[in-house]
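Pasting as-is:
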Amino acid sequence: MSSLVVRDAKREDCKEVERLIQELADFERMPDGPQIDAKVLERDGFDLSPPLYHCYVVDDPNDPSKLIGYAIYFIVFGTMVGRRMYLEDIYVTEKYRKKCIGNALFQKVAQKGVQLKCADMQFIVLDWNPAQDFYKSRGACDVTKEEGWHLFRIDGESLKKISESSESSYVVRDAKRTDCKDVLRLIQELADFEKTGLTQVTVQDIEQDFFDCDHPTFHCIVVEDQNDSSKLIGYSIYYNHYGTWTGRRMYLRDIYVNSAYRGKHIGDALMQKVAQRAVETKCVDMDFIVVDWNPAKDFYKAKGATDITLSEAWHLFCVRGDDLKKVADRK
C-alpha cells in the first residue's frame, strides 16, 4: 500500500462516493439508507459556491475506476473556540481496513483543519462502533460521555410548523457589525450558564468569520431590548451543515436569552427565525447539542426535537488543538 494517495474528490467520483456512503449506511445499520444520490453530491459539492462539503478519496490500487475510502468535511464555527473542522464521514471499505487508510484520511482532514486555523475537529460516532478506539488513540475525547452533551434533531415537518408560528412583538433581526461586542457578551453569558469557562472567541473573530469574508462560516440573529434598541437580550448562531444521508441540514450552534427576559417567548421567536431560514434554504432537518442537565431540553422537545443520543446512540467526539496538530504531523 506504499502507493496510497489521498486526493481531493472530483466530480466524476460522485457515483463511487455514493456507493461508499451506502456501504457506511449498511455498516451503521441504517435501514432507510442514504436519501441522496450522485447527482445531489455533484450539485452540493461542485455546482454551489461555496460548496456545502469537501471530500477526500482514496483510489483502489487494483482498479483506478474504484474508490476504497472517503472523508467528507466542512468548516463551521464554535462560539467557545471559533473556527472548527467538522468531519461528517470517514469510511474505508472492509477489504482494505487495517492498512492505515483510515489513518491517512483522518490525518489529511486534520492537516486541512490546521492549515485553516481551526481550533478543533468534531464528529459523531455510534456508541457501539469499534472505531472509537481509533479516534481515542488520536487524542479524541467522547464529550457526550465526559461532559454530557447530547445531539438533538428537529425533522423537516416540525421545522415547518415552527417557521409558521405567530410572530413576536420583539425586534428579531440579522446581526450587524455594530452588534458584535454585545453578541460576545451574550456568548459569555451562555458559557457561564453552561459552565464551560471563558470563550476564546473575540469580537475580531466574529467580525472576521461573519462580516469580513466572502462566505461566512456562520449567521447570527439577535433580539433587541424593547426599552433600549442598542442593547441585545438574545441571539442565535446557525449555519448550514451537510449530512450524507439527507443532504443540506441546518445546525443551530447557539440559542440564548438573557435570564431577565425569559418566559416572554423570545426563545420561540429565535427558533422561529432559524426554522424559517432552514425552510427557505431547503434544509431537511436541524441539529444542535444540549448538555444533559439543561432544562431547555423540554423546550426543544416541545418543538418536536428528538434526543438522538438517547434514541440512536450517537456520541459527539472532539479532537482539540494540540491533539489536532499531533494528528496532522503524525508520521
